[in-house]
Specification:
This protein is an all-alpha fold. Helices cover 65% and strands 1% of the residues. It has 16 helices and two strands.
Length: 372
């Protein structure tokens, strides 16, 4: 079926050809049980009536949360992957609710909803959310999550959700005040906005990874984790720009932040975004290699998992209809839509010096610590 475009669609500010992606990773990894997981996840969505009509269901499925899960966890256990994919479908619906909220109470709404969500995770049955399909689906996810995860994993997951809500509230506060954050302020919170810690707990659970807390939370490992989250966030901002460019004031996206920082257009900021992203990738590769030299089996597997996350996330975004045929331009998702991205063996910015962003500069300081 040919795409049906919205009559109010505007021309893209940045176009549809993204700069080549510096790619020192494996490509095209995907879990062999993707079709089975997709069928089961959709059955779960329909059982709870998560979407009110066929159009909303089509856009919900266009998030391709199973494809995302199967690309970032290409060798994981099926049951945790299914639960994680369902969490993603639910989280995408929540994210879209945040994006569609408006008015003076927006930040208060995000904080209020987030607080109730976190407490529901920590104390099921607290009765803090209104009845309905969304709450029923959440209660099912919470019950199954608490049954599957160890107490430490559950605490990590809950803290990850809290971090995600913190990021969403910070972003909402900026929007409510009409503030486009500085590059440093943006970088400091972007990893939280992207749900890094929400996601990584599930990668570890599905992959059977159990890194001791004193190692997982050491400065070099956390720097590598944050770098991975930031790279994924940069890629997300490139792929999602056209999806959100109808918002006024403009979305707190890397390209809009860089446009303000450099005094240029978002299209002109593409090269700067690519350079920033590629320098973070170079740091990630160097720090990962140094950590791997003294890593035991569990840490070694964690390092590989972070690489799978970066690689799988980029390939997912390239072909997910949510991004490649966005709703602000299409009446329905377009099957087979793709950005058709290209790859590069070399970074667009070859510098190995720390990025001139104080909130991120500490990552480079860990290179020496990781070698000890």
């Amino acid at each position: 079926m040919a795409p049906v475009y919205r009559e109010d669609a505007r021309p893209s500010r940045i176009g549809w050809q993204l700069p080549p992606f510096y790619w020192p990773f494996e490509r095209d990894l995907i879990h062999p049980k993707e079709a089975e997981l997709e069928e089961r996840a959709i059955a779960w969505i329909d059982a709870f009536g998560l979407y009110p009509d066929a159009t909303e269901r089509a856009w919900g499925l266009a998030t391709r949360s199973v494809d995302f899960t199967c690309r970032i966890i290409p060798y994981g256990d099926v049951e945790p992957m299914l639960l994680f994919a369902e969490w993603n479908y639910w989280a995408f619906a929540t994210d879209d609710w945040q994006d569609s909220d408006a008015g003076a109470a927006r930040t208060a709404s995000v904080v209020d909803q987030g607080t109730r969500l976190i407490r529901t995770l920590e104390a099921p049955g607290s009765g803090l959310l209104p009845p309905g399909p969304h709450t029923a689906a959440l209660e099912d996810l919470v019950a199954r999550t608490r049954a599957m995860l160890t107490p430490f994993q559950l605490r990590r997951f809950t803290e990850g959700v809290r971090d995600w809500v913190f990021g969403a509230a910070s972003q909402a506060a900026n929007a409510e005040r009409g503030v486009m954050p500085s590059l440093n302020d943006f970088a400091a919170t972007r990893i939280s906005v992207g749900g890094t810690r929400f996601l990584l707990t599930w990668c570890d659970v599905a992959n059977g990874i159990d890194v001791p807390a004193e190692v997982l939370y050491s400065a070099p490992v956390q720097a590598l984790t944050d770098a991975a989250g930031f790279i994924v966030a940069c890629d997300n901002d490139l792929f999602s720009y056209n999806k959100d460019d109808h918002h006024e004031p403009r979305e707190q996206n890397l390209l809009n932040v860089l446009a303000r920082h450099h005094g240029c257009t978002p299209a002109e900021a593409l090269a700067a975004a690519s350079a920033l992203r590629d320098r973070a990738v170079t740091l990630f590769v160097r720090l990962r290699e140094r950590l791997a030299r003294g890593a035991d089996e569990q840490l070694g597997r964690y390092l590989i998992s972070l690489e799978h996350w970066i690689a799988g996330d980029t390939e997912y975004h390239n072909r997910a209809p949510r991004y490649a045929s966005p709703r602000n331009r299409n009446v329905l998702p377009v099957e087979g839509a793709s950005y058709g991205i290209t790859w590069s063996d070399t970074p667009s910015d070859p510098s190995v010096e720390p990025l001139p962003i104080p909130a991120l500069a500490w990552w480079w300081q860990q290179l020496d610590d990781a070698s000890r």
